Task: structure prediction
Amino acid sequence: MRVAVVGHVEWVEFARVETMPRSGGIVHAWEWWAQAGGGGAVAALQLARLADEAILFTALGRDELGRTAEKELREGGVHVHASRSSDSQRRAICHVDEHGERTITVLGDKLRPRGDDGELPWEELDRVDAAYFVSGDTAALRQARRAPVLVATARELGTLKRSGVELDALVGSGEDEGERFQSGDLDPPPRLVVTTSGALGGWAQPGGPFQAAPPPGPVEDAYGCGDCFAAGLTFALGRRLAGADALGFAARCGAAALTGRGVHAAHVEP
Result:
């Protein structure tokens, strides 16, 4: 299989702490590291573990962090197609508490890929099995629709509304106010709408409730679980799985992200 992601990249600095910082307080990290992350990177890395080929259409800063992020993604098996922005690479700070819950502070605006960017070989989307849209302008979303299966995050609802693009699936977290979706928000409506609720599972329309999968090992952190779920759903739909089979596979991918350090995740057998 050949799967594509259209979305942004962040350089993420992780800090593992006993408790989250409170107003006016100081916390000490007992472990810290940095990785290329953000929704586009996480999904592309997950798909690189699942598919024969994973392609990422993105925008990166011209600075050292942008170059380092690209190098790390390529080493992770992702084919990176990136335009270069004059802005600095977007960064993020992620605190991870003793229970594995993550709290993120982002520094800078998303560097979104543009559909009219001649640096990006959008024609490659004619040869993929599925694509996942994480972020970009309306033209980038229309380019992504060249894929036979298109999944998108509800995080970019404004772009989805303006585009008029029909989605095969829309995925959002019921626990994140920025990803709430209501019937009638999009015209035409998505063929499948999935709302996730962490350990409670989630709800699909059509399909109804579905269960979360148990983590395949000890919990490390919750970073990237949502995008790994969506990437798994994109892969499953690209393989022509449907209903409970597609959602079950996506749930396993989300659970596997709980057991990985930062952007890493446990292997899930396709």
Remarks:
- The chain has a mean pLDDT of 94.
- The longest strand covers residues 53-61.
